[in-house]
Design goal:
Layout: H1 3-16, E1 21-24, E2 27-33, E3 40-46, E4 49-55, H2 63-69, E5 74-79, E6 82-88, E7 91-94, E8 103-104
Antiparallel strand pairs: 1-2, 2-3, 3-4, 4-5, 5-6, 6-7, 7-8
Length: 105
């Protein structure tokens, strides 16, 4: 699987299917709720990278939050505390100068 495929899989399992545990390549990772807002989040690894998927908080002022308020399922992905991608309704947006924008699987 590519990173983009993994991100979509995590997004689908955590937000669309509302699974309590996601499965990736034979590994299982628990989906938790954040303490204050109750947003879904999951810490997982892919090819030695430690990543976190975090449901978008609709109460913020970002364009992603606006999409979430409109009913889209949006998850941000972080690595080492930095945002690396977002998945909104099955479409991946990678961040960074070399990122391929708006991929979907």
């Amino acid at each position: 699987m590519t990173l983009e495929e993994v991100l979509i899989s995590v997004w689908r399992q955590a937000l669309v299917e509302r699974a309590e545990v996601i499965e990736l390549g034979g590994q299982r990772f628990r989906v938790r709720a954040t303490p204050r807002k109750g947003l879904r989040q999951v810490d997982f690894t892919f090819e030695g990278r430690s990543l976190r998927g975090l449901e978008q908080n609709p109460a913020t002022s970002s364009r992603w939050a606006e999409m979430a308020r409109a009913g889209a399922k949006v998850m941000q992905f972080l690595e080492a505390g930095r945002y690396v991608a977002a998945v909104a309704d099955g479409k991946v947006t990678m961040y960074g100068p070399k990122a391929a924008k708006h991929r979907s699987v």
